[in-house]
Amino acid sequence: MARKVLFSFSYEDVKNFKSNVVRQSWVTQNGEGAFVDGSIWETAKANSVTYLKNMIDDGMKNTSVTVVLIGEDTANRRWVNYEIVRSFERGNGLLGIHINRIAGRTGRTASGDNPLNRLGFEVAAGGRKIHFYELVSRQWQVYDDLPTINNKQSNTLYFEDSFWNGNEYGKFYRFSDKFVTQCWDMDTGYSNLASWVDTAARQAGRT
Question: Using 50, 70 and 90 to split pLDDT, how confident is the model at 93?
Answer without folding.
Answer: very high
